[in-house]
Amino acid sequence: MKRLSRPGEGEILLLTASRLLDGRIVWLGEGEHWRESIAEATRFTYEDAGAALERALAEAEQKEVVAVYEVVAKDTQPPEPVTTREAIRAHGPSVHPDFSYDHAPVREKESAL
Amino acid sequence: MTQPASRSVGHYQYEERDRAFLQERINEFEGQVRRRLSGELSEEEFKPLRLMNGVYLQLHAYMLRVAIPYGVLDSRQLHKLADVAAKYDRNYGHFTTRQNIQFNWIALKDVPTILRELAEVDMHAIQTSGNCIRNVTSDEFAGAAKDELMDPRIHAEIVRQWSTLHPEFTFLPRKFKIAISGSPEDRVAARFHDIGLLARPSENGPLFRLFVGGGLGRTPVVGQELFDSVKEEDLIATLEAVLRVYNAFGRRDNLYKARIKILVQTIGLEAFRKAVEEELARMDRAAYRLTPEHVAQIRARFALPDLKAPADASDVLEQHKKADPAFARWVASNTHPHQDEGHICAVISLKTPGDIPGDVTSEQMHGLADLAERHSFGEVRVTHLQNLVFGHVRKDQLHELWQGLKALGLAAPNVGLISDIVSCPGLDYCNLANARSLPLAQKLGARFGDAALQAEIGALSIHMSGCINACGHHHVGNIGLLGVDKRGAETYQILLGGDAGENAAIGGILGPSFAEDEAVDAVARIVEFYLGQRQKGETFSAMLKRCGLKAFKEVAYETV
Amino acid sequence: MKLFDLSGRKTLEAASPVPFAEWKDSQQGTAISLPQDVEVEELRPYLSSLTLIVLEFPVFRDGRAFTQARSLREYEGYKGEIRASGHLLPDQAIHLRRCGFDSVALSEDANVKDWEEQLGRYQFYYQNTAVSPV
């Protein structure tokens, strides 16, 4: 099995997937139900995430999700993914604020300078 | 059910058997979705099957890529695409560099229904993805351009039919792209396809110059000439032979080395040619002969435009231009000479500066379909630079068309100019991307959006890809931009000197990558340097050759 | 294993195939199996003594055996049975038949109905294959 990404200081892991029927992005939440909002995602420590991911993968077929994997996020309210890719998945395409999942634009990129 | 076939020009008109074939294909796909949901097919097994029907799982949803064979649509088809966008997507369609259209917000459960709706207007998503022979692309001015040697679309259709569900070549090592042009100016990037065909007429019928092993992506390669003059009757046999060699010997152990370009590079052009010739020698040539009767049959299903224009059409156009400088500017950049004196080809820019390249709304699609009906025999072409073309517009009516386009917000006078930016969807939509490409394309478009400034700069192409798979063809832009992930941050490499046409060239990487806003500034400095240093009439590529990459590098990194 | 008839041959070869590399030494029996990376030309001297050639699919996406089968029919004039074996999907039934396969070796629990349905799917095809005319 592939090694999990390791969260840094003040970071946690979330589990995400795509719904088989419509391709919609989902996050593993309470009661191991797949939720549409990242705000409802269960937070995992590095230690807990492995077993949870394995279980989620085993149940993926039955729960009609595909492409299950873990995402590193800041332990904030709601959790905020650390990579741009996952931020776009969590909030919607940055070029279409009208398509936003949370009606708030994707955070502006910090200048590299 | 469907409209009579005689309504549209420019593409093959379906017969009943073609329609029955599409219905069977949809039934087949519906069954595959059902088997996937019942667990009979695993995701691993289902994926190649859905890809061959144009269905990707992207970042936010499924994406459906609909085929537009050789880039030609008719107005009823465009109306239907507009309906699909409104009903099943978020009201947008996105035209791609392979002359297709993509919908970004599709649900898998809706796909069979969408395919049935598309089939009502003789459209499909067959082989728009997957490791098979992809949708055949062609010249956007086919059958219209003044400089054309022959209309390539008849043979493009023949290749489309031949490749559709080809039993031997549906599970190839990797995808396989064929382009065909009949122009002396290569407008299809023939040297950047797995097979590129340049058609020309001769006393004894059409001849095809065949390039093999070109491509962009991870390993950009300029295709090499395999044969100078393939005869029409040998066209299918030759394609069969090339594909057989590729299917048998193309690498399957490494995804990144599986394209035919790697095979040709590895064994060398001579050995590859020898293998193809051996296949041809052993082949039952009669079985694969493309007969004049078959060509005539296909040709008969193409309607020709009835080109009638008043004698003073050109004069009227000149008067309109004189009276309206904004129109004159649009005509200067957005038209192409037509074979018929009274007609002209109009290019509709889908690159309104600041907007997303290639995106159109459902309303715009409906509006364009109506305009095409009025001004271009209902025919619309998609270009590999993500614009649209009305092939046959009466010169005296061009002004009226332009006003219609203005009302749709689609009259940007920038075709071939710096803000006519080619871009992939990038990280905002794509599962493979490393960086976003659309925001950068939008910023560059806005930076150079001023019409007078663009006209002064002249012909200059910017191509932008969000990862090394190069869907935005960054290697062949005069200025190319490539998104790279640098320790979690999106950064952009700049390449200079690419060219997709007759002088095919792959751009050279300038140096270390830039942050997004820095990249915009660096491009601005490069353009300024070009404006300041160019000699009269000197193109960007010519000046780059004269001054060298290093001079541009110093400007871009401000090290002078 | 159960055999599914693609081409209407009716009597399918029952003999167990021997890997070609082994068979070449002994030339015992008339049934062989061939991996995808062997060129079928190598079989040329032996074809008249073979009644079954099994072409292997390590995974359904690997389509080399389609070219192998078509070469056996078209170039080598082989008239015996060609069988597909390995990881295959019913969605490939027509491809197999049109490239010259006669049969496919399915697992016991395979859904034969899917294969039958797929075989009867299309009324016409867009290209000649020079083998197994429909």
TrEMBL record, chain A:
A Pfam family annotated for this UniProt entry: DUF2849
InterPro entries: DUF2849 (IPR021270)
Region (Disordered): 76-113
Biased composition range(s): Basic and acidic residues: 99-113
Domain of life: Bacteria
Protein name stated in the entry: DUF2849 domain-containing protein
Gene source species: Bombella pluederhausensis
From TrEMBL, chain B:
Cited Pfam families: NIR_SIR, NIR_SIR_ferr
InterPro entries tied to this protein: NIR_SIR_4Fe-4S, NiRdtase/SiRdtase_haem-b_fer, Nit/Sulf_reduc_fer-like_dom_sf, NO2/SO3_Rdtase_4Fe4S_dom, NO2/SO3_Rdtase_4Fe4S_sf, NO2/SO3_Rdtase_FeS/sirohaem_BS
Domain Nitrite/Sulfite reductase ferredoxin-like intervals: 62-121, 350-407
Protein name: Nitrite/sulfite reductase
Domain Nitrite/sulphite reductase 4Fe-4S: 129-281, 421-556
Keywords, ordered alphabetically: 4Fe-4S, Heme, Iron, Iron-sulfur, Metal-binding, Oxidoreductase
Keyword Protease recorded: no
TrEMBL record, chain C:
InterPro entries in the cross-refs: UCP030820 (IPR008318)
Family annotation (Pfam families): DUF934
Domain of life according to the entry: Bacteria
Protein name: DUF934 domain-containing protein
Species this protein is from: Bombella pluederhausensis
